[in-house]
Each structure stands twice: as C-alpha cells, then as structure tokens.
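User: what does the whole thing look like in 3D?
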Amino acid sequence: MGCVSPENVTAAELVARCRAGDQDAWRELVERFSRYVYAIAGQGFRLPEHAAEDVFQEVFARTYEHLDRLRDDAAIQPWLAQLTRRLCIDHLRSSSREQLEEEPEPDAADDAFERLDESLAVHEALAELPEHCAEILDRFFAKDESYHTIGEALGLPAGTIASRISRCLAKLREHFEGRNPPAQPSGGR
Amino acid sequence: MTHYDEDRLAALLRVLPPAPEAWVRAAQELPLARRGLDEIVARAEADAEFRALLVADLEAALEVEGYERDPAVVEALRLRLANG
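Assistant: Here's the predicted 3D structure for the full assembly of 273 residues, as structure tokens:
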C-alpha cells in the first residue's frame, strides 16, 4: 500500500498531495471519483460506452493538468461534476442534433445528479465502517455479486453473507445518519 | 425530512457501480504516461533522426524503440509533434 490510507484522507488532502506530485494520491483520487464520473456520463447523459469512455479519460486528463486551477481543494467533487457534465454536453452537441434533442430534461437531470451526489456520500461513509462491511455491501449492491462469490472472495461461508449484509446496512445507517442528521421539520407552516 | 432507512441506503449503493477496470487503470496511469510522453518529446527535440522516424510513422517508431503505445499517449504525442 502506498502512503495514502483512503479511509483517513479527505478529498481536499488528496488534491493537495496530487498537486505535490504524489502518485499514490492520484491513484486514490481516480479510484474515489471514477464511479461518480462514470455514472454522470452513463446514467446522467446516457452516453454510449465508447463516448462515455472518451469523456471519462478526458475528465481525468484535464483534472490532472489543471489541478492548480482549483481554488478550493475541498470543491473537487462539484468541479469534477461540472467538468464531466460540460464534456458530455459537448459530446452530444458534436455528435448529432437528434442526440441533442434527447438530452435529459433539466429537472429530471438535476434529480439524477442529486441522487449521484447522495450515493457518493453513502459510498464515502462505507469506507469508515468496520470489518468487511464496506466490501460486502459494495460487492453485493454496487457490483451485484452473489452470496457465493462474496463468500469465496472474502473467505466467509456463503450462508453468513445475508446476515452480514443486514448487520452492515444497519451500521451504515447508524453511521450515515450520524454524519448527516435528518433535517428537522420547519415548524409546520 | 430526509430519512435514510436500510432500503434507501441499499438503493443508493446500487446507483454507483464501478467504472470498467481498464478505464480506471488508464486514468490512474496518466502521470506515468505523461512522463513517458515528455521523455519522447525531449528525445525528438535532441535527435533529428528520431524525430523524422516519429513523424514518418509514429506508432511503428514507438514500437521499434520499445515505448508503450497507449492510444491517448500516441494521440497526445501526434499533437505535440505537429505543434512543435
């Protein structure tokens, strides 16, 4: 393992380390945001695979080149989101007018992007869970792996995976609500 | 009121599947690729014969010289040679 311990490093710290030329930090930065960029291109804009790949690589190439332009290191996520969205729109505009007409409606798109932000926050919370929880939940829900596959990969009996998923989800809920307390009602008006 | 029960968390976890491994690896290797690119450009600037080989047939010249022929690097190199 390199000098970066993913659980303990904020995005802002990663950006600062990347700027200083830390390659482990760059690898972690890509790892941390790869799903997010992929989802914006694939789910948000429904780009075909080859176009999504072009956008994905271009986003990280530009990020690598222009990290010094980022005014607030903690703003890397919205910065990546904006860059990815802009490149997706450029792609749709350049590919054809018919595709441009299929751009998501702004309201629907905003909902989809909010959901991606929310999902990324949940994935970040996963990294702080104990034991195999992060890996079990990620493999089951995000990677769609079976109990058998997860059990083999982690050296656990397949029969225990379902109960572990349930326990880990409960821990995630407790942890996530601790980080993001539910908004209070505004007083009934 | 925002409330995160287990079903909602599970649904949110499903929203972000991993990006294809090869895409992630390629992006992670960008610094190495860029360094290789800089090295090739520096060599082309110092060695006219090598530069001529690159201009004549970029991919073949890279293969002969043992450089990685990553498509993104080849394209970036093509641009830099054209602009240099």
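In plain terms: Chain B touches chain A through 27 residues (CB under 8 Å). Chain B has six helices and no strands.
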